[in-house]
Amino acid sequence: MAAPARTPRSTWIEQALAALAEGGPDAVRVDVLAKELGVTRGSFYWHFKDRGALLEALLDTWEQKGADEVIARAEAAGADPRDKVRVLGTSVPASPLMPVDLAIRDWARRDPAVAERLRRVDNRRMDYLRTLFRSFCPDPDDVEARCMLAFSLGVANQSLAAEHGPRSRADVLDLAVEYLLA
User: Is pTM beyond 0.85 here?
Assistant: First the structure.
């Protein structure tokens, strides 16, 4: 008789990311995740020592996807830094990872370790933006202002409920990115 297949570690992490996005860190509960995955708690302990280890793995995955993969996606856009900014301006706000990012920002307000992790990820993201904007903006103050505006737009876009008259949100985002690239 064949041994039952184990639920992969990555499946636990993906389910935990979804729970975090939906309800914050308190929603990341082993019993609830096991039930949602249709497995026992024992499957969890095959991969993780405890809930804290799952939360660390969740943050590691978010960091890797939210920084490394986003930068790699922009780098794949080609050699033109403006094209890379355009990719960031359109793909980041629409990313399925954005609700996780927002949940982590909220969590960071109450947990200094998560706040430090968020600071590290945000610094990597801003450093990358600075590299892109410096390639066509000679003024360091202009670079910093454009980076702050671009980064803020990416984060805040999910929280805005404003309408844009006859324009769609996507159209306005495209206009904002073009404004930043002018």
Answer: yes
